Amino acid sequence: MPEGRLLKATLIQAAAFSLLLAVVPSVAAPLAPSEVVPVKSRQIENFKIGSDQKLFGKLEFLGGIEMSSSNALLGAISSIRFRPDRKSFLAIMDTGHWVEGAIERDQKGRLAGTSNLTVTSMIDANGRSEQVKERMDCEGVALRDGEVLASYEGLHRVDVYPDPGFAQSGPVATMPLLIPFTALRGNRGLETIAVSPKDSPLAGSVTVVSELSFDKNGNLLAAVLDGPRKGIFGVVRKGPFAVTDGAFLPNGDFLILERRFSFAEGIGMQIRRIKGDDIKPGAVVDGEILLNADMGYQIDNMEGLDVVVEPGGDIRLIIVSDDNHSILERNLMLEFRLIE
Fold first, then answer.
1. Across the strands, what pairs with 173?
2. Which in 120, 138, 188, 262 has the greatest CB count within 10 A?
3. How far is residue 95's CA from residue 277's CA, in Å, rounded to a whole number?
4. φ, ψ for residue 204 (rounded to 5)?
5. For the segment 171-216, what is each residue's pLDDT rounded down to a tens digit?
6. Surface-to-core class of residue 239, CB atoms within 10 Å of its CB (0-12 exposed, 13-18 middle, 19+ buried)
7. Which of 313, 333, 312 is nearest to 322 (CA)?
8. What is the pLDDT of residue 8?
9. pTM value?
10. Residue 108: exposed, middle, or buried by beta-carbon count in 10 A (0-12, 13-18, 19+)?
11. One-letter-per-residue 3-state SS of the chain
12. Which one, of 185, 210, 184, 179, lies nearest residue 281 by Cα?
């Protein structure tokens, strides 16, 4: 065939193939595995074991629940965020799963259980789900307009997912960490991610805090990833505690949840309040301890904290535990009122 006719035939074939692609529907990507998990809840009326005490410093205990399920998927919850309706929530498991559900309350307004708890495998940047923990060890989650932000340790990163649509989407972007990758310890990396209020000193920016990764002076590495105060800062370590989550108060102050575990002292939990205006590049921050609890209280491996503001202005703290899928640990959800 002459060269000109060969080129013409090739172009016709290419055009026909392009037309075929346009009219033949594409094969949909398989949905990420998802499962509704039944949950049985037992109410917790007293925070201090054997005591009716309700006030603990500036926190008032309002109640809690212990959650269990016949489905082995329940567990490993590392962070939780509530939607504006103050009932629906999004949580993550450090096994690489999203958890969606809602809380239920009794006639007195106390936590009574959860409903519609759905667990979905997270999708990575390559479109894969059901990945090994080392690749999808998600430790923190935060909500921002149109986005779900997830922080990972091991393969340290902050991935951005669309909201709505996160559960069946891979990340659409990854935020620059600012903290040198080599400074973050393998299993002690980005444990905490939180979004500040828009009218606060940090102006709606994203803040991350490491669990147990240190700067040259032994302070916990942290950073504001965007906004007017973008940069690295340090958090004074309160040994033997490690930071597991954090959330901002409406005025911009930053609450961090810390846990302790040792065979000698057992488990412990601490909540620290850091002034939002203190957080800026190069600063080293510390704050008031609002609560310190040990094995004499209804706690476990407490890893998730969120702040919920009621219509009347009441500020609630909701804390959840990570049971590590162990029969020796519990899935707890505790609620406190902040008393200013």
1. 160
2. 138
3. 35
4. 75, 15
5. 999 999 999 999 999 888 999 999 999 999 999 999 999 999 999 9
6. exposed
7. 333
8. 45
9. 0.90
10. exposed
11. CCHHHHHHHHHHHHHHHHHHHHHCCCCCCCCCCEEECCCEEEEECCCECCCCCCEECCEEEEEEEEEECCCCCCCCEEEEEECCCCCEEEEEECCCEEEEEEEEECCCCCEEEEEEEEEEECCCCCCCCCCCCCCCCEEEEEEECCEEEEEECCCCEEEEEECCCHHHCCCCEEECCCCCHHHCCCCCCEEEEEECCCCCCCCCCEEEEEEEEECCCCCEEEEECCCCCCEEEEECCCCCCEEEEEEECCCCCEEEEEEEEECCCEEEEEEEEECHHHCCCCCEECCEEEEEECCCECCCCEEEEEEEECCCCCEEEEEEECCCCCCCCCEEEEEEEECC
12. 179
Would you say 234 and 217 are in contact if contact means Cβ atoms under 8 Å apart?
A: yes
* Calpha distance 57→61 (Å, rounded): 10
334 residue type, one letter: L
